[in-house]
Hints:
- By secondary structure, the protein is mainly α.
- It has two domains: 3-157, Ribonuclease III domain (Ribonuclease iii, N-terminal Endonuclease Domain, Chain A); 163-229, Double Stranded RNA Binding Domain.
- Helices cover 60% and strands 10% of the residues.
- It has a three-stranded antiparallel β-sheet, with helices on one face.
- The model has no long low-confidence stretch (mean pLDDT 92).
Amino acid sequence: MDTNTYLAFARDTLHTEFNDLNLLITAFTHRSYLNEHKKSVSEHNERLEFLGDAVLELVVTEYLYSNYSDPEGILTNWRSSLVRTESIGAAATKFGFEPLLRLSRGEKRGTDRARAQILANSFEAVVGALYLDQGYDAAKKFIHESIISTFENILETGSWMDPKSHLQELAQSNETATPVYKVMNEDGPDHDKTFTVGVYVGSNLRGQGTGPSKQAAQQKAAEAALNHYK
């Protein structure tokens, strides 16, 4: 990937001209890339990710505090829904981050779950790079465009709620029943198991999900079951 690609991304997507383009390039550089390019690359994006995570949380917190008078617990849940891996990974995908990632050959063949985490990390790193190069207001503007702009939809769909809590609320109000989770299958060795869990409301299977732990599979099952009530 040549520097012109990152210049175009800064201009067309971030709407700015970086003073230090290397900051932006580093934001897209995964740790694994260094192993294959030790002579030409000396830094990966984890420090920028650390900084960007703090900036992202501050901007979102500031927005919620300034615009809503709800209790702390509600504001915390809303903030969590905006800054969670799925939300920022989706923003990174929407804004075309993936082709710019600098990954090792092995990471390029990684799982979808691993790629989603890498995208989320790169989003935070780009926020960190923007903050260092262009200042707080530039980082804030991008966060509003890419993350806070999704908040109305999050409120409308109720996706800010924990899926299991949301499902329980809907199941009890619509069917006067409490969801029950059952492990349907376990695959793989003990150190790398995959669980499939079904969630039942009464005698009806409302959804099922798969994950690396029973808890993760339950969350996926609850997410699937929520579609029944839409």
